[in-house]
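Here is one chain, start to finish.
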Amino acid sequence: MAAAHGGPFFDMLRWSRFISMMMVAISTACATPSREALPTTVTTRSGDVHDFDYFAGAWTTRQRRLMARGVGGNDWDEFPATLCMTLYLDGMATVDELLFPTKGWAGLTLRTFDIQKRQWSIYWVSSRTGILSAPVIGGFTGDRGEFYGEDEDGGRAVRVRFIWTKLDDDHAHWEQAFSYDDGRTWEVNWTADFVRANPATTCQSGRPRR
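Its structure:
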């Protein structure tokens, strides 16, 4: 006599139906038209699997964030942060946690490298929401990296641009900009200047010390 839940055969049938429904959902999502594609010069920007190797370890940083985005404001909030970054899969993936001690929250960045396209995808998660952001995609040319994507800001569709600049082995600069007019103009709304720090005193188990 079969068990109350229907037995192994029933479980396999139910799992098969679940997989089938998931495949249909994925196919439907892929068939749904997306927003206007980014310009070819943006989406084809490529890089190298070792682009972010230099960023492994510990950093102290000064953050500047625009108080109000998309309104032509010029009031900035400045605050400190510490960051600890680890390489995985021989540099093909990186994870760093950024702690804002005066703000009471943190963020996590995941970067993955597509070997075939030779492009990085950069994702951000804030501890305030737990939501994985849409990625920005691109790579480095020399010491300058450019990454582009699409997102929303306060209900408005925006194009997103990250620029990374390797200043030297111990200093780096990052900035985020939004475009509200399909890339014709850009407003820088967040910048960060990084100085290399001692991992033994800055990090604990790969994360910023609390």
